[in-house]
Amino acid sequence: MKRVSKILKSGLAFIAMLGLAQTTIAGEPKTFEGPKPDLKIESANHLFAEKYPLQYKSWESTKESTEVVSALEEDPRLVVLWSGYAFSKDYNKPRGHFYAVTDVRSILRTGAPKDENSGPMPMACWTCKGPDVPRLIAEKGEVGYFDEKWAKYGSEIVNSIGCADCHDTTSQEFKDGKPALRVARPHVLRALDAIGWKFDTLDKHGKRVAVCANCHVEYYFAGKEKAVTFPWDKGTDVDSIEKYYDEKQFTDWVHGLSKAPMLKAQHPDFEIWSMGTHGKNGVTCIDCHMPKVEDKNGKVYTDHKIGNPFDAFESTCKTCHEQSKESLQKRVAEHKKQVKDVMVRLEDQIVKAHFEAKAAWDANATAEEMKAALQDIRHAQWRWDYAAASHGGYMHAPDVMLRVLGTGLEKASEARAKLAVVLTKHGVATPITYPDISTKEKAQKVIGLDMPKELREKDEFLRTIVPQWEKEAKAKGLLPADEK
Prior knowledge:
By secondary structure, the chain is mainly α. It is built from 20 helices and six strands. It has helices at 2-20, 53-60, 71-74, 77-81, 100-106, 132-146, 163-166, 172-175, 186-194, 204-212, 238-248, 269-275, 277-280, 285-289, 325-362, 367-388, 393-396, 398-425, 440-446, 451-475, and strands at residues 220-222, 227-229, 253-254, 261-262, 292-294, 300-302. The strands form three sheets. The chain has a two-stranded antiparallel sheet with strand order 1-2. Strands 3-4 form a two-stranded antiparallel ribbon. β5 (292-294) and β6 (300-302) form a beta hairpin. The longest helix is centred in the C-terminal third of the chain and has 38 residues, at 325-362. The relative contact order is 0.13.
């Protein structure tokens, strides 16, 4: 009963937070934080291995997720959905926290910069990848951090998601062996404050969720600095965030085929979780993904091997549910299939809409004729991406996922109906002939990517630039001398 009362209390806090999100502002700051020379953040993960061996070893075990799985190979439609955007080159399924820095270096999306001033991506692409980021923000200020190219601090951002991302590692509380939780990134604190979730006033359950919101949220790169910003001014649901972006006339990229002004969702796990059964009842990320466990000597600690709750069923689901593991797994599998089935249907419709829009442009359709259909494509794909980019949304809030995808299907249908009118007006027979995109390679060729060139350049970057970054990091003490 004690646990239930805690959950209900926390649940009321989460519901209150979501209500406040409708009327407050979490957008671009009027001023950025400057350097904080007195804020000393110890970002080297290996320095905490001796004092916190159980937590450190469990965190380190996230490196067991060694397999790199290409989502583009599993579903080539994604290549077309992201035509004109770097995600069409390379997109892998997420791995453990241990690989956050490795994976962002290796992914084709970050390009192959030859020096600190080249490459396609801004510094913001590092922001969720490790504790060296808040350290650099404290040292250089937000503008000094964000207003640079991604390669500028490649030798500084070398520790993957770890201790100082979530803990005040220099506080006496932490040194005394207590959690000392902290949200280390200023833009996250601003967003949480603006929706009525002031970090210092939260109970421990709220603080744990707020720490996860460092990264597991929707965000975009705003302004000339390309600063990470949360689009929560109007709320955290798919419609409110869409309205926010539309009113700002914000566009992540213009689609390579349809020329639609597109949005790219990041990973709105916090937002979707908060609208689901667990979120509404105060069951937090930590309860399911970082449970309390015992070592062989009976010492209780928080397991930092973040993964599937079913892998630690007795310490996670079983603390609340009376059903068997098999029963719950079956229910989750059903939810996953339901969501996936609708998601694939939506992908098919949007892919066809992109090709139909291209056919209309090729037939000399005007911008005015295309405007309404392109806006529908934007909204349809935003809804698909909001659902697809969420990690475990089918578990966190399957009802929300199905509603989001269902409205996406409506938008895609409206887009295709409008395009059919335009195509007919310009003498194009429908249905048009769609190209073969049955494999990643075929789809990438259709949208005009030169993948051999991309791969050659990335290979050279990984062979020449990254080893130099790591050598410099070891000299600075950011990595242990024997780090491979």
